[in-house]
Amino acid sequence: MRKSAIAALLLVILGNIGVWALWNRPVAERSWGGAISGVGYTPFHPDKSPSKGDKASAEDIEKDMKALEGSVKGVRIYSTTDGSEQTAPIARKYGIPITAGAWIAGKPEIDEPEINGLIKLARDNNNVRRVLVGNEAILRADVTVPQAIEYIKRVKKKVNVPVSTAEPWHVWLEHPELADAVDFLAVHLLPYWEGVPADQSVDYAMFRYNELKTKFPNKHILISEIGWPADGPWRRGAEASQVNQAKFIRTFLNVAAQNKLDYFIMEAFDQPWKREIEGTAGTSWGLWDAWRKPKFPMIGEVTELRNWPLLCGISIAVGFLPLVFFLWRRGGDLKFGGQVFYGAMIQGVSSVLVFTFTAASVAGLATTTEIAWGILVFCQLVLLAVMLIDGLELTEVVWQDRFKRKFQPCSAAPLPNAPKVSIHVPCYNEPPHMVMETLDALARLDYPNYEVLLLDNNTKDPAVWRPVEEYCRKLGPKFRFFHLDNWPGFKAGALNFGLAQTAPDAQHIAVIDSDYQVHPDWLKATIPHFDRPEVGFVQSPQDYRDWSHDLFQRMINWEYAGFFHIGMIQRNERNAIIQHGTMTIIRKSALEEVGRWGEWCITEDADLGLRLFEHKYEAVYMPESYGKGLVPDSFSAYKTQRFRWAYGAVQILKHHWRDLLPGGPRLTAGQKYHFITGWLPWFADAAHMIFGIAGIIWSLGLLAFPKYFEFPPSVFMIPTLSVFAFKVGASLWLYEARVKCGFWDKVGAAIAGMALTHTVGRAMWLGMFTSGRPFVRTPKCENQPALMQAFLMAREEIALLLGLWGAALAIVLVFGHENRDAFMWSGLLVVQSLPYLSAFITALINAFPNIGLGKQRPQPTETAGAGAD
């Protein structure tokens, strides 16, 4: 490994450590060195849940009381029928007093056993010092105030300890008659649920405490619940975090000691099962985690993740081998900046995955949440894989030190006996004047030995094809016209017919679309590359004309340019280009060897290129333009063309999958990489369809069934938004490096590309589950569509756009006032809607072609690239 690669490796690892350390930098908070007055206690360990009918075991309670001994002065329990009643006799052995509670639900079958159990518990255990009849039962509207008072009176008659019920502060203020019925006030002060920022929360709790003290001066006040969660959604200004929990608890304990408060911290141990009823926040109020380990120290500095050095080390270990492999393989041909940039991407992805899987390992998830996490983890893996693929392309484009396979056009005049080329021009129902212009350009070729076969494939109207036939006669014997009626095999069938009619002495087959006007130097500049017998085909980029004064056509022209001036150049480095059925020249013997054109596939050109690679032929890609065609006239035609390309890609993958596997011997690793990763973003488009629909459904679940649905954790939403931002930034950066167009043209190309997301996604899904879709040509020279036609062209996209926007708006209106995660989720829905918005914008631009977009960069009039003359 080179010194620069070693330096990049060390720099990336040190940078990763620095990021983890910065994110988990210690926070100095007020320390606490004494015992805690009391803690709320629910005796369920991670493998149990009362909602499933589980009962707490004496063994678990014994372990918990032993863990609490010496740290707390009292314990509060909430039920006398779920196993919690065993706490009192066990706690007595450790000298821990109990405040016992009965869970009141307003149902006699639940309430009566609870009350009877509470009475029995108080009578049988002298360490039960107080009892609470109900916990927020009035707040939940399970019982009315008179019903609660009646229950309290019943219990007071049967026990010799103080009796009360536990409710939030405002319930006591609103119902002084309730205060009259109890021996003391048991108040819940939970500023997090009220959206109070952490740094103001203790003061706020004391304000409410003093308000009650003023209102009821003759009543003892027990703060029966007070605390802060370590995890959960934002609630207005309240952020649930480990640091904020430690800050709140340690500050409150000091204030409580100064004011001699009677309190129970909410709560002793994290309870994962509460996710089912209170969401993520309900699981993480414990001073100890679900495995009975302290979550933060009471003395000294606090960090968000106490085990962050371990997680950082794991992330380094996960990313180390991929990082070393990358630097070992690419350290010699990438500049130092590229090594560091992509190395940092690998390490960053490793850290995100470690953090994600750590968050996903939390026990006791609700069923819907488990399903959501499973889907989200998979989706995040796909997103990160796509980002790494895009990042590698960006790295190679920006920091490539040298090109290994750069081919120059040949400028020498061809000899009279130059290899003969048979040029095949398939067409179907094309405007005669356009085809004649194509033939005129072919007639001007500066090459001594070629023929042209015009293959009119299944055009029904003689008025369309007969003028072209007559024009071929006028051009002389080099031009031959064939009209095929009811010919099978689509374009590939016509090309195979042409192959059978090719002059016997022709050595190479060239193919162009019927709208292409080639440069006179095309054959002269490219045919000499066939002097090497391993060359199977020579490809020039698709290029376009007559688009500069139409904004829609201008946008899609630059969208096409990105692939041919970025992706194809990088694929050429690994001899893995996509063959395109125009501006391509194939060695005739190679074409016959691999079985001619594949009539089973609607993208016969890409299939042929892959088969040539499988037979060990080499491709030559020359980025210079030697011919220009016409871009589609309508958004509908643009979508139809991309649908065909995407559907054909799935056909090819299904047909060639064995050769693309790691053990397949016929393709190189680089070829497999590009053919798989090159089409992976299209599978991501297919996934995007599902994400969009799932986002709408999940939003409906949040709105209609908030008990069972919660917002996806930010550990997923933030990376998803970040990946989108990276893709946009990378696209603009790539265009800046390789495609010579203005900023607004880059934006237009990005909009046009995103506008095809739904079309590509639909094609991929259909391709996976169907076969044999008919070949549909891309129409040219069409009239502009009407406004209504623009809406019809994007009707599916508009429906999804409105669905996502409606869901985002509803989420903000319903949850935005109290939950900041609602804004992040809504933002994610809006980001998901951008491809659909792009489709609508593109359709409108197509309907109104005179719209301007920025300042147009002047275009050269010469077709051939530098060095072609």
From TrEMBL:
It is an enzyme of class 2 (transferase). It holds the Pfam family Glyco_trans_2_3. The chain crosses the membrane at residues 308-328, 340-365, 371-392, 682-704, 716-735, 798-816, 822-848. Its EC number is 2.4.1.336. This is Beta-monoglucosyldiacylglycerol synthase. GO terms for molecular function: hexosyltransferase activity. The keyword Glycosyltransferase applies. Residues 508-705 form the Glycosyltransferase 2-like domain. It comes from the Bacteria. It catalyses: a 1,2-diacyl-sn-glycerol + UDP-alpha-D-glucose = a 1,2-diacyl-3-O-(beta-D-glucopyranosyl)-sn-glycerol + UDP + H(+). GO terms for cellular component: plasma membrane. It is found in: Membrane. Gene3D superfamilies: Glycosidases, Spore Coat Polysaccharide Biosynthesis Protein SpsA, Chain A. It is a multi-pass membrane protein. Keywords: Glycosyltransferase, Magnesium, Membrane, Transferase, Transmembrane, Transmembrane helix.
